[in-house]
Amino acid sequence: MELLKVHTLEAARKKLVNAMEGKEPKxxxxxxxxxxxxxLAQDIMAEEPVPAYRRSMVDGYAVISGDTGGASEGLPxxxxxxxxxxxxxxxxxxxxxxxxxxxxTGGMIPEGADAVVxxxxxxLFDEDHLAVYDSVAHGKNVVSQGEDICHGEVVIKxxxxxxxxxxxxxxxxGVLEVIVYEPWTITIISTGDELVHPSLQPLPGEIRDIxxxxxxxxxxxxxxxxxxxxxxxxxxxxxKEKVLQSMKTSDLVMISGGSSKGKKDATSQIIDEVTGGNSxxxxxxxxPGKPSIFGFDPSTGTLVVGLPGHPVAAILVFELMVAxxxxxxxxxxxxxxxxxxxxxNLAGAPGRATCQLVxxxxxxxxxxxxxxxxxxxxxxxLTRADGYFIMGQNQEGIKKExxxxxxYL
Length: 409
Ligand SMILES: Nc1nc2c(c(=O)[nH]1)N[C@H]1C(S)=C(S)[C@@H](COP(=O)(O)OP(=O)(O)OC[C@H]3O[C@@H](n4cnc5c(N)ncnc54)[C@H](O)[C@@H]3O)O[C@H]1N2
Ligand code: MOO
Hints:
Layout: H1 9-19, E1 27-31, E2 44-45, E3 55-56, E4 60-63, E5 77-84, E6 99-103, E7 115-118, E8 122-126, E9 129-132, E10 142-143, E11 154-156, H2 164-172, E12 177-181, E13 185-191, E14 195-196, E15 207-208, H3 211-221, E16 225-232, H4 236-249, E17 252-256, H5 267-274, E18 279-282, E19 286-287, E20 293-297, E21 302-307, H6 311-329, E22 337-342, E23 346-347, E24 353-363, E25 366-371, H7 380-384, E26 387-391, E27 397-398, E28 403-408
Parallel strand pairs: 5-6, 13-16, 13-17, 14-15, 17-21, 19-24, 22-25
Antiparallel strand pairs: 1-12, 2-11, 3-10, 4-6, 4-7, 5-9, 8-9, 18-20, 20-21, 22-28, 23-27, 24-25, 24-26, 26-28
């Protein structure tokens, strides 16, 4: 009897990282406006401070804060107006003791001034004198030089997924071209004699192909570039031929189905052959997802993955291994997670980590995680779940009210 020699999730990840060491995805230079949702392949360092000069937060009068001490509605302070800053212009006067100057919102604070009084609290007393009815503290209504971004600061780190706010920061620094990772290109092959296109009515024994659709959407959600999606019969040689062809153009070839021990299950053999014997992993100590296969062909630099045919298993293994690896290789941060209390006791799977789907429920101020049960051959469990948590392989179980770390799906 031949049993799978399973790897723990951690050991499997480590093995893949080692095998792919130095194979960081290539990078390209892109126009800033084309970079949304891409992963930065460089640190963005501020070559100048933002703002470059002190700016006013309000429309009002730039003053020396000390001059306004004690000013109130009943007892204004009288200051001489010595100038006016125009929007977009630099200030060409100095505020000295007993004087002030007008500044619009965003305008440059004149030298000497250290605060701005809002114009609602001021009144022109005569042609060049201002009555100030409020006292302001040092720095009030002033954005100081470099308060937003310091000169020399790494303001956005390599591995950051570019959101509209990162685009805004780069625009503020005049960075109009960015170096981002070229996403992995991927070919997805679903195998199975029983699979029919979703547009067709399956005959008895047939089922609609779920995995090509769900996996290509997952890949796109992680920013990968899906080059080709195929549905093939469980025939080893034509399947191997397609895998070899796909390896010429794809960084990642993912085969779903045929990963276990059925009569026609050939994925493991194919991965071994196409990677020149570099099949690294066949079997994860994970529930679901045990019969997963990973190989890396150093000559083409292609990662070849055999995902279990059961849809939930295929999608979770993609999430935990393939997407994890891509994020790791592109220096991305850990995913956001949320701690939630279990609604019920849950048994573990001896010797295997369990990836448990959960629905999140908010009760008063706390989140609760309610297990979503269902076999890995189903699909709707994933739409009923908000996320998952991992129960370690040495954990006997989880108790009701115990906190678990939930990752979103
Ligand atoms: N004797 C054993 N049988 C099985 C084992 C085992 O260890 N010993 N492992 C089970 C586990 S766990 C899983 S997971 C599956 C993995 O199966 P395969 O990767 O070999 O995939 P298939 O046999 O081709 O299909 C399994 C199942 O999934 C359905 N499927 C496959 N592809 C798709 C698709 N694209 N869309 C929708 N559904 C798909 C397929 O119809 C089968 O029902 O093996 C267990 N068996
Ligand atoms: O482990 Mo399977 O991968 O239960 O569905």
